[in-house]
Specification:
mainly alpha, extended, 4 helices
Length: about 110
């Protein structure tokens, strides 16, 4: 499988959505879709790692599939608002590497994973 940059993913999603007259949903609808997909991931996490087993009638969905759904909706959301996700990622990483650099205990060479 070919590795894609975030820019390439944003372009691929834009090409897909642009073929439809409806285009991107409104920001409020995008947020609702993102919440819906996050809920589906939470449900799967609960089935895999929590105390709630699946019903026999429920189909098996992978965590990978659910995370992919979230990524697709997030890219749609960003595209609809003309947000460059690579730029957004760089901004948040800068924040974590400066403001929060001493917030957590760093591993040392002797730490075992």
């Amino acid at each position: 499988m070919q590795t894609k940059t975030i820019k390439e993913m944003q372009k691929e999603v834009d090409n897909h959505i642009s073929q439809y007259k409806e285009g991107y949903f409104s920001p409020l609808s995008m947020l609702a879709r993102l919440s819906e997909e996050t809920g589906e991931l939470a449900r799967e996490i609960n089935h895999y790692y929590g105390e709630k087993p699946k019903k026999e009638s429920e189909t098996e969905k992978s965590l990978e599939q659910e995370m992919g759904d979230i990524l697709f909706v997030l890219i749609c959301f960003a595209n609809s608002l003309h947000i460059d996700l690579e730029e957004a990622f760089d901004l948040v990483m800068d924040k974590f590497q400066t403001r929060d650099k001493d917030r957590w205990t760093k591993k040392t060479e002797g730490d075992v994973e």
